[in-house]
Amino acid sequence: MSDVHEQGPEEHASGIKTPKQLIVAVAASFIVPIVVIIMLTQFVTLENKQAPGTASFTAEAIARRIAPVAQFTLKDANAPVAYKTGQQVFEAQCTTCHTAGLLGAPKFGDAAAWGPRIAKGVDALLQSALHGKGNMPAQAGGDYSDYEVGEAVVYMANKGGAKFDEPKAPAAAGSAAAAAASAAASAPAADASAAGAAASAASQ
């Protein structure tokens, strides 16, 4: 006996038998995705459909929505620098992990956790903070200067039992830059006065 199964014409028959069914199927293939996309966009923008005067229409909310993605702050290089204290840097940058001891970070104020780290010295702790160690990302080049990161390191270590001295504040870069600029400005003036004196001497 042969195992070949003869297929009848009804097994290959399509569900679309009339032109009207074909038109409905083609229309549905376009309309259904469009309706789904419209419903999704309505769902996503539902927050913005609130009445004026609600939270979405406050000046702050509108400014947040239309703010450019990239932003920069123009700073005066000659302005005096106001450094943050170690506690301020800790509360702004370090508290998330060090207060709860997340991801292996030594818990703030835990002398047992800080003891082995303190034994390595403040320089080793500062290098770990600046360049990163374990799960802690590098803090150098971020929102705070190396000096401010050092302030935070000393603050946390001292709360963990260390007796580290506060790091020395860096020299005022603004005053050094201003002095260099004034020296550069006075040099052409001196050259000009010397050239004037030489010219008057030659004319006599």
SSE topology sketch:
Layout: H1 19-44, H2 59-66, H3 86-98, H4 111-119, H5 122-131, H6 146-159, H7 173-203
Unreliable stretches covering 5 or more consecutive residues: 174-179
Structural class: mainly alpha
Radius of gyration: 36 Å
Distance between the termini: 134 Å
Per the principal axes of the C-alpha atoms, what is the gross shape?
elongated
Number of E-type strands:
0
Mean pLDDT: 75
Topology as H/E string?
Answer: HHHHHHH
Question: What does the model show?
Answer:
The radius of gyration is 36 Å and the shape is elongated. It is 54% helix and 0% strand. It starts with 18 loop residues before the first helix and ends with a helix. It has helices at residues 19-44, 59-66, 86-98, 111-119, 122-131, 146-159, 173-203. The chain has 204 residues and is an all-alpha fold.
State the main characteristics:
204 residues, mainly alpha, 0% strand
Task: Briefly characterize the structure.
54% of the residues lie in helices and 0% in strands.
